[in-house]
Structure formats: structure tokens, C-alpha cells
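Q: Here's a chain of 500 amino acids. Please give me its 3D structure as C-alpha cells.
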Amino acid sequence: MDNDEPLESETTEENGAQPAPQSSEEMLYCEAEPPPPVDKEKPARESSETDLEIEDAEKLFTTGQSELYTEACKLVGVVPVSYFLRNMDEAFLNLNHHGLGPNGTKAIAIALVSNTTVISLELEDNCIMEEGVLSLVEMLQENYYVQELNISNNALGLEGARIISQFLQRNSSSLLNLQLSGNNFTDESAELLCLALSANYRIREMDLSHNQFSDKGGELLGQMLALNVGLVSLDLSWNHFCSRAAVALCNGLRANVTLKTLDLSMNGFGNEGAAALGEALRLNGSLAYVDVSANNISNEGVSKISRGLEINETLKVLKLFLNPISLDGAIILILSIKRNSRSKMEKLDISNVMVSEQFVKILDGVYAVHPQLDVTYKAVQGLSVKSSFFLWTNPMKLIQSYADQHKITILDFFKSLNPAGTTKMPMGEFWKTMIQQNKVPLNRFQLRELTKRLDNKKGMVDFSQPTLERGKATEETMWGGLPVAAPSGDGLTPLTQPAK
């Protein structure tokens, strides 16, 4: 909690007619008029201890947002958070690690009932407990503007999961993104959450990482995925899923038609789970990003995943980092992509695998078929660190030089490569275009670094002027305006191999 001194509120009393007394069963009145109402139900668990009320109802109509918050703090007996007072008119509100507790959370919720500016609310690690969750869901029943909520690492447990489940089943809020990482959710909690998500169609992104789900929870989540028609992103990393859970989850993926991003890293799928994933990739037509890093998948499992890659037409990113895969497994993977002429694969992460020069030659053939593909691996066997270092030139400087010679801007250069003529472009399409263009030839290491600077974290590159300026500054800091040595293992073409 902030250590700021309590702030005294300034309110004015009006001599008009008094509003009707507010009962303990009524929700907090909004000062601002909300958008057109939708049918809603009140939360099941309501009491005079948790309702978002102000004792003097007239003050709700005579005070501003900040005054309303300070009045709420007086009501629940907490010190106002100065950061909240300063930023409650911002779209993004970060109150992580503020020690709010359930009462501090209730005061925040009271103030946000009538707030029309906050879209994203971060409340991670605040010990909000069951009472705080209840206050938040009551607020979300009335607030039509909050779309993202992070209540990770609040040890919500079974009762918290129950309150959230009841809230989600109503499908009556504007919430699209819900982060629930690290809340000690067990398989019993999974049953409640899956019950809600099986019928919920509003939530688009859900983070359930760092919880205690095991095989039983995995089976329930698999059944949920087969029914859910809303989720596009699901994070289940750092749980306790083994092969049984993996098979159930992948069975759910076979029927799912909306999920695009799935993070299952840091679990225990093993080769049996990898086989189930391979079969899911053969049938699923929506997944674009899958992370199964650190899941004890060996060459045997990789061969099963490869069967899915030979057919799949939607997957763009596959992460297999920190799995016990050897050179043979790496070759199986890239050849399966090569055989699929309709593959959309853009990134394959096997960055813990040591490859050979033969692998690099095979990979060049794969790149010829799929120029949008980028494979990251550890290094090339037989090449010393010294002999595998090259001199590189800052890619932004090369582009700037070309632009100066042709009397255009860097923005003009990038826009000329985009058929749509806009300042944004899908990452895979940008990569493919940059590989194939001959105006400013770049090797894959340079291009990888360039795309990092232009990545808008939403699967697009953004080369608008402010982004270019930031990218240029970052490149100059990183490269120092001078050639630097490139690390080995970046999957380059023969052009960039060391001279012998």
C-alpha cells in the first residue's frame, strides 16, 4: 500500500431532493451515465459487507472521481493510493505490488464503477483474497469499459475460482483478457473454471500459467477446449501436465476452431503427448502459435509432430526449445516443413540443438521453398567460436544509405515493399519480402535483429516514423555504429559462412 498521507475529500451538499435510500442489496450508482444497458444478473454472493456502496448516496452525485475514491477509502478504512489518484484518467492502470488487500481493492472497485477511461487494470500481487475478487466482479458487472484484468499471484485458491467461474458464466461484462497466473488453482479449481469457459464466448485471452493443474485438470481443460468458441489465446505453461493431460488437451484441440495461441511450455508431455500434438496439428485449422518448450520431447516425439507439420496449413510458430532433440530430430523437422508446400511456418525454435554444416545446406533448400521461415539453432558442429564469427553492418544504416542515394526516406523504402502501401505488415510477409528484395540485401542475422526492432508484439511489423526512430536509436546503441561479431547458429545461407 502507498505510504501517502490520507487525503481529505472535499464534498458539497446540495439542497435538492434526497434520492431514495439505498438498500444493502443495491449496487453502487454511477456518476457517469453508462452506455445502453444489457441484461445482467447480480453476483450470487452479495452481502452488506461486499456491496460497492457509499453510505451517503447523495455524495455519489456531487463528487468527482477522485473525491469518490477518497470517500470509498474512508468507508473501508484504508489510505488512498496516490498513484491511482494521479492516473485514474489513463487507459492503462498498473497497481501491481501495491499491497492493496481486500479493502484497498474494494475502494478501487467503488471508484471504477463509474469510470469510463480505464481499459486495462493490473492488480498482480496485492493479496486481494476472496473479498477483493468479489468486489472486482461486482464492479465489472457495472463497468462497460474495462477489457483487460490481471489478478495474477493473489493466491485466490478454490473460493476465488468459484467467484470467477460464476462471473464468467454470465457473459455480461466487457472483459476480453483475464490473467490468473500463480493463484494456487488445483484440479478442483480447474473444474469450476472449465465449467464457465465451456459456455463463455466473451473472454478472448486467458492466462492460467504457474498453477497446480495436473492430469485431471488437463482432462477437464481438454473437454473445455472442444466446446469453447471464444478463446484465441491460452497460456497453460508451468503447470503439472504429463502424458495423460497432454493427450486430453490435444484431443480438445482437434475440435477447437478459434484458439490461435497456445503456450504449454514447462510441463511434462513426453513423446506420448508429442504424438497427440502431431495428430492435433493434422486436424486443427486455427492454431498459429504453439510453445511446447521443456516438455521432455525427444527425436521420437519430434517425428510424430513432424507428421502434423507435413499437413498443417495454419501454424506459424513452433517452439521446441529445451527438449532433448538431436541433429537427426532437427533434420526431420525441417524436411517435414519442406514437404508441405502450403506450410505457413515462420519460426521454428530449436535453439538448444547443435547442428552440422550438412543441416545448414539442407536448411538452405527449405528456405528456397519457404522464404518466410526462420529456424534458430544453437551452433554449427565443427566450427570454433573464433572461425564462426563474422563482421556485420548495422541493417538500419544500410537501409538509410540506400534511401539517401535514392533521395527517399526510410519510411518510403519500407512502404514500397508493402503491396498495401501501409506502415504495418504481417511479420511473415515482411520477412519473406525482405529476403526476396534486392534493393538492400540483408543476411538472416541482420534481418532477425531488424524485425525485433520493428515488432509491435501483435504479429506485425510497424515501420511508422516514431517506430523507425526508436528502432534506429536502439540499433545504433546495440551496434555502436560499427560492424560487430555475429554469434554462431543463426541459420544463415552459404553467403554468410566463414571463408575457409
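Q: Can you summarize the key feature?
A: Confidence is low (pLDDT under 50) at residues 1-50, 55-62, 385-391, 476-500.
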